[in-house]
Structures are given as C-alpha cells and as structure tokens.
C-alpha cells in the first residue's frame, strides 16, 4: 500500500538568499546615505538647482551606460563574483572618500568624480543582483522573495534621517563614510560564501570577443523590442521615472526655498498642535522653520509607506489575474498624489508620501516578480540591462530638463506637468497594450496555486 507524503515546503531564507539580501541591503544603505549626504553638501555649496541636477545626473548617466553594457557580460560569466568584487571596490572607494573629507578637500570636482564612479558601480551591481536573485530562490516563493527585496531600499532609507542628523551635528560626513567602508567590506566577505548554481555560464563560451559582445548587447534590445508586453512595461517605467526625476531634483530645493509655505506649525498641524505638550510643539515649530529637516521627515513617511507596503506584499494573497489591475490603479494614484502634494500643507504632504511609498512597493513587486519569472535565465541579464538603461535614461532626462526649467519656473509646476505626462503614458502605453502586458503581469507563478504542489509516493 502506498501513502502520499507532501514534499517539504520550499524555504525562503536559504543561505544564498539570506547572504544576497543582506549584502544588497548594505549596498543600498551605503549608497543611499552617501548619495543623500553628498546632495546636501552640493546644494549647500552651490545653492543652484541646475548644478544640483548636474550632480544627480552625474550619478545616473554612468549608471545608465554601464547597466547597458553589463547585461551581455552577466549572461556569460559569474554574477556572484561580480557582486562581491564590486562591494570590495566600494569599501576601498568609501575609505578614500573618508580621507578626502578628513583633510577637508571639499572641491566640487572631487564629488563629481565620486558620483561618476559610484554611479558606474551601481549600474553594474543592479544588473548582477537582479539577474542572480532568482537563482537563490524557488519559484514556489517568488512573490514573498520579491516582497522582501522590495523592503531592502526603504529599510536602507530609514538611515537617511539619522545620517542627516550626524552630518549637521558632527559638521562633517566623514563618520558616515567610515561606516560605509566597514559595511561594504563585511558584505563582500560574506558574499564570497554564496554557492548558488549559475546555469547560464557556458564553459565553452567563457571568453568574450568584441564581436560576440556587440551581438549580445544588440540581442538585449531586440529581445525586449520583439515582445510587445516587455517593451510596453519598459517604456512606461522609463516615462514614470522621467516624472520621478523631476520630483527627486526639485523637491529638496522647493522645501529649502519655500519657508513661507510651511510657516506656522499651528497652521500646518491644526488638530495635532493644540493637544501636544510644549516640547513636542517646539519640535513641530523647529521642523516648520528648518525646512531641510522637514524634508527629511517627509521622506521618512515615504520610507514608512514602503516598509508597510513590503510587509503587506509579504503576507497579502490575491489572484494572479488581478495583478495588472492592481498595478494600473497604483500607478494612477501615485501620479495624482505626486502631481498635487506640494500644493498642500506639511501634514498632507506626509500622508501623500506615506501612500505613494505603500503603493510603489506593490507596483515594484508585481513588475519585478512577473518579468523575472517570464524571462528565461539565459536572457535575463540582457533584459535587465536594457530595462535598467531605459529606466535610468528616463530619470536622467527628467533631472536635466527639470533642473534647467527649475531656474525659471516654480518647481511644483514642473513636477505637476511631468506627472501629467506620466498619466498620459499610463493609458497610452500600458492600458492600450493591456492584452500583451497582462500576459506577463498575470502569469501564474507556482506559488499562486498551492494545490499544484507535487507529492511523493512512499510504501506503507
């Protein structure tokens, strides 16, 4: 007689998944903290919205270029080795930055070179990470795994308010870069211990000629362009990031240059202010007077939204057939909130950031988990490479254009106009190609149907 024994449920937190996730958290943490602090330093040094946007573009331009060329390499060679090598390089780089700040060599061109290098590393790292990530998990836990992945960035961003306080109180960013160097070195050492199987590596093709390299890069373009759904998703997220580029460039200058918009804590928080004690009232008054710190706390609400959204995505179960609708509705609400929030009092801006953070995680999780399941392992790095290039390209265009226009036009008008373009693109690109996009977004991943779990027969 035979009895059926259920297979052991696949474990999410395997050794490889844990190491890669924690390593990615360290990378996000280090780069988020350094990027934000350097942006504050640059804006404080120059006071120019245009030069501030030049700095931001200096990060995204090499990121775009290197992500474009990284895919062909990642589809032939070890992605794991690329990840820990880049983290060793980052540890060395941030040690050098610490010495620069220690000796107070605060020249604009030094920071410009720094962000060019960091942007290049980020471009390669993201392609390597996104290509290797599916190899560390089972398809039975895809959505949960990407829900965890979606929380990495907001968790890292939680440190930005702390970093801001350290910077302003210590009078230098040097301690932050020491922390970065140690964190990257630790992550790199652990990443060398990963032993996930990389089936894409073909021993007969482990040398890459220029001709083969050119062919592989072209293949990344043609592969995405030949699939109507993948192309629509890539194009829309390029435009969405175009609008996001404007917000990222103009929000901080808006807060710093518009103290009158946030004046009077009793007006900004009319229901909350009267019930608070003197100390808490003093904190609110300080925030409304120091708009740079207020911006940091507004950002914290966006981070909190992403964390809550990540936890929801980890636990939430809904039909795979609803993913397309959920994603479109979330993108619609995000565009509307981004378009309107800077016209509102501080309390409503915080709520808008909380909502956009929460919804953006749903969009991220749906897009990443489904495209990674849809694209084969052999083509994944080339698709990721093309997507990251287009994604960065949208951001760069948004930053440059908004930076130029920001010298003449009020920042919130520009952000509103860019998000109107975002809304038009949502309907013209995603909704208009709903059938092709649904084929990807509504794909049934193994964990969507637990009844399909296989069983083993065992003799009685």
Describe this structure in words.
The structure is a single chain. This protein starts with a strand and ends with a strand. With about 450 residues, the chain is an all-alpha fold. It is built from 17 helices and two strands. It has one domain: MFS general substrate transporter like domains (Growth Hormone, Chain: A). Helix 4 (about 110-130) packs antiparallel against helix 15.
The low-confidence runs, each spanning 5 or more residues with pLDDT under 50, are 1-7, 452-460
Mean pLDDT: 79
Instruction: Note the main sheet.
Output: 2 strands, antiparallel
Helix-strand topology string: EHHHHHHHHHHHHHHHHHE
Strand content: under 5%
In CATH, the topology is named Growth Hormone, Chain: A
User: What is the domain total for the residues?
Assistant: 1
Q: Can you tell me the overall shape?
A: globular
Task: Give the gist of this structure.
The chain is an all-alpha fold and about 450 residues long. The protein has helices at about 15-45, 50-75, 80-100, 110-130, 140-155, 160-170, 175-190, 210-225, 230-255, 265-270, 280-290, 290-315, 325-340, 345-375, 375-405, 410-430, 435-440; strands at about 1-5, 455-460. The chain has a single domain (about 1-200, about 210-460), classed as Up-down Bundle (Growth Hormone, Chain: A).
